[in-house]
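Encode chain A's predicted structure.
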Amino acid sequence: MDPEADARALVSDRVPAARAAFLGGGILSARRTPTSDLDIVILIDGPPAPYRESLRWRGWPVELFVQQPGTIAAWFAKDVARRRPTLARICADGVILADADGTATAVRDQARAVLAAGPPAVEPAELDWRRYSLTDLLDDLAGSTDPGETAVICWHVITGSAELALVLAGAWLGSGKWLLRELRAIDPRFADELIAARDDPARLAGLADGVRARAGGSLWAGYRQ
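Encoded structure for chain A:
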């Protein structure tokens, strides 16, 4: 199976009027797995874009992100605001599948500028909310006596700690496997320590407390949102 060839065929067959198309994501890297999907951004003129669609093509799971040249900048901005530059990364780092009139080149330059600028600086209110949330989780973890509940709490502590570490570093966030990938990119040692402590609540609490301390320490009583 050739992901690039199959992605080109998909665009040609389903969206022949595409002005630009990109293939990106883990499918093009050493992190490719048997279930990796084809992440494809396509630009067309007018409705029904913008929309997102999941489908199967030649045995591949496919995620289509269909935009208009006039809407993609707004979606880049939405991704930046939530610190998850999904579309910008596909367009900046992926393979150009179609470029009818130079649109792909222009969008690629735009996406690379977004990534180069980085995520927005963390606001004090968000930092307080993250400290508060992690403090609440650590209190729950300290008092948990149910193994099932402890396991769930541990996972949320890992997530909260990873996100807080990324925010403090001025780095991008990610969801699912991408959260760990983002953390490994900026602090591989801390990422490994978090995963190694997933079944050790006391060790995990110590790691979480360390990153919380860098953010200003425990916050619960007196917090107001």
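The mean pLDDT is 95.
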